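Predict structure. Input: trans-2-enoyl-CoA reductase (NAD(+)), 403 residues.
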Amino acid sequence: MEGSVTNMQLSEKITGNVSRSVNPHGLERMMAQQIETVRQRGAYAGAKRALILGGSASYGLGSRLTAAFGQGATTISVGYARPPHDDFLGAAGWWNQVYFKQAAERAGLVAQNFNANVFLNSTKQLVIDYVRQRLDGPIDLLVYSIAAPKRINPENPDEVWRSVIKPIGAPVTDFSVDLEREELVKQTITPATPEEIAATTHVMGGEDWELWVTALRSAGVLAPNCKTILFSYEGPTATAAIYHDGTLGQAKRAAEASARRLQAKLGPTGGEALISVNRSATTKAAAVIPGFSRYCLALLQAEQVTGTHETTVEHQDRLFRDMVYGRQRQVDELGRLRPDAWELAAMTQDQVARILPKITPATFTRNLPGYQQYRREFRQLSGFDVPGVTADFDLTELNQWHD
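Output follows.
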């Protein structure tokens, strides 16, 4: 960034349900708060060297936070987020990586970020080389937390698979929150074609997860007792048509099949391949799922009554502390970990069932408690609406980051 002006006033910009601006200082404050959340719960025995695929935001970032500041692990994060360029301040994920590494190193922990395409073979080799050359042992925790719009076919670079969020078999009409206009809008989503279903499964299923495990094992950088985990979602009946029964749900069923194949390979040496069915969360990826945001408003409002709300880092810390490495595993008939049990508990869903029909375009208001919390959580993903943080930013700060 060139020019004589170094100070700027940051302005928030939301287009539809996509945030197109960032406040780095707000993200720094949010990172400090999340680290403190983990630290207050104390240290626990877990991984020594964790590889987080998709560690720049959401459940991937939450996993990395509890691995580093709860377990004391060395952490490697792989995932692409746009860095600052010209008059663009960079994506929130890029800053999350920067601030995480800075905080980890202050705490005496090793933290490495690779801002790269997780699907590429060259990225896998980059990580393998780093583990061989720089770490004192193999990876003993592999987290797969990737939500991506597309993936190149590794066997045919000319073919690109693109994921879609669509129902299967019949169209779905539902209401979603438009965060830009702050209103509820009706959407009708046409059913996915067979080709779209297949492409979404290639991108969002477990294929690449299996490729990562295979590559790391073949290179001798995966510990025999390694635990690897991929995140899924079930949700209630209210979201089933667009999620569980749609293209995303189909992809997650494929990921569960991947987990079974991986378990057959890792189990004999003491390793584990796990699926965790996580709770609904305010994330940038979830914000664009048709109808999902309306359910989230009702859920957040219900949880204000039941007192069962968790932030992403709280959820992930409980998952790893109690279930992955602890003795409080909650599993279903398919063997999947179920930290989402709090969300799906009868007392919470009964509240949701009462609230959801009342959230319509005619009754929607910005003062709705669930909406206020949803919008605040969404804005904080980009560093806005963070208490004590101003909109001032000094562009010369960019010169000190060489991530």
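Residues 247-266 form the longest helix (20 residues).
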